[in-house]
Amino acid sequence: MVKYKEKLEEQKVFIDGEWTTSSKGDTYSIINPSTGKTFVECQKCDVEDTKRAIDVARDAFDNGPWPEMSLEERTKIFYKVADMMAKKSWQLSKLDAMCNGIPALSHLIMVLSSVPLYKYICTQAKKVLEPKKVSTLYPVDSTVLRDPDGVTALIAPWNGPIWIESAKLAPALIVGNTAVLKPASQTPLTALEIAKIFEKAGLPKGVLNVITGPGSVVGAEMAKSEKVDHVSLTGETITGKEIVKNAIGNLKKVSLELGGKSANIIFDDFPIEDAVNMAAVGGYFLNGELCIENTRILMQERIHKKVAKKFAELSKSLRLGNALSLNTNIGPLVTEGQMERNLKYIESGKEEGATLLCGGYRPQEGELKDGFFVAPTVFDNVSNDMKIAREEIFGPVLSVIPFSTEEEAIEIANDTTYGLGGAVMTKDRKRGMRVAKKMRTGSVFVNTVHILQGETPFGGYKQSGWGREMSELSVEEFTQPKSITADWGGFTKYFVELVQLH
């Protein structure tokens, strides 16, 4: 039996450097998906609370010290944040596991990846913010520099809370922006802990505000507000489209990292055991609730049956369990609704004629019976026009699609409205790079999966989003380029005289 705290104390929100409750005193419950029991109450903020947080961030940007501080001063605070986060890594991992059901060890990977990200972004900001002299046709001095956007509204998802919150907060704050962070309603706890860490590290009052509540209310108001300069969302594609509609009022900048239906192309020269393992990690990491997950597994015909059989055997052996258990491979899905959604897709796969190799049910015995579990599910002989191959399921439900030639594999991989991730498994270096280049997607992994690094940009093509997170590009994403042209030699007076002569 896994030991955990049955109840946590009621959580508050962080506005203007103070820990407070929602304006109406409303709260909502978070259910631990491993047990099906409520374990904490959080503030249910509304439009009034959102407007207040935005007003505070606006004032902190317009009148506060943060935008005027040197990069070196801001960097010192970031280094303190990174060090404190490292010390609390296991505590933070358990909090997220209790909220969304993803194994705590998986969260630990994300927390420990966030620590160097804060430090890395500081070095990238130094490069991005350095004024750059530009050679011009005329005898004038031209300089290009970058200013912070202003007030940023950061909306995070529930599947990788602390990693994605850090990927937004680090580049947004380091360049001098202020922020209102809205974590997903299901996973607010680590965002509130991050606020405590920044507060302890000496972040000026009002620079970071964290509010909790429904996205349809809080997120919508953040996107609508004319006091917000940039809204950054990681979430579903349908939510991204709503953000764009709401943001049109003041034509604010919008960054979107949205859904995916990534393909893992396995060629017949790749070792079978390695192919099976890569398919498992690429398809089941974070319980299958990952936007970049390789949920379409394309297997070349010569090895298709053998790899599919072994993959199903491996899937059956994976251990389902409480997200806090160190023995758990796959935990419960985040909510009962998400579990039901997965089960409906499974029925759809059966109805459309796909072959169910394993899984396809909700475990209802022992410690699993009250949690929101779905057994690892593999469908074989899936065609790319089936619903389970077209739509983002967000769970441990994977589709095996056979293919014949390299050209056919590329065609299938690209035949989707998404373009976030993808993978290629082959021992042929030239083919690996050739196929990767032809895949219409923001990230491709050759003979590996899910190695998301702070140094490489992350984002998607098509309906997988706008803009990029991580790398130097993420810092640029939260700035506006400005050109300053100065005439110190008197060229302009000759230009004016020339114009007047005509």
Overall average residue pLDDT: 95
Question: What do we call the CATH homologous superfamily of the largest domain?
Answer: Aldehyde Dehydrogenase, Chain A, domain 1
Shape: globular
CATH architectural category of the largest domain: 3-Layer(aba) Sandwich
Assembly level: single chain
Query: What's the N-to-C terminus distance?
Result: 89 Å
Number of domains: 2
- Cα-atom Rg, whole angstroms? 24 Å
Question: What is the helix fraction of residues, given as a range?
Answer: 40-55%
CATH topology-level name of the largest domain: Aldehyde Dehydrogenase, Chain A, domain 1
Number of helical stretches of at least 4 residues: 16
What's the arrangement of strands in the largest beta sheet? 14-15-16-13-12-17-18
Protein name: Aldehyde dehydrogenase family protein
Domain Aldehyde dehydrogenase: 19-484
Keywords: Oxidoreductase
GO molecular function: oxidoreductase activity, acting on the aldehyde or oxo group of donors, NAD or NADP as acceptor
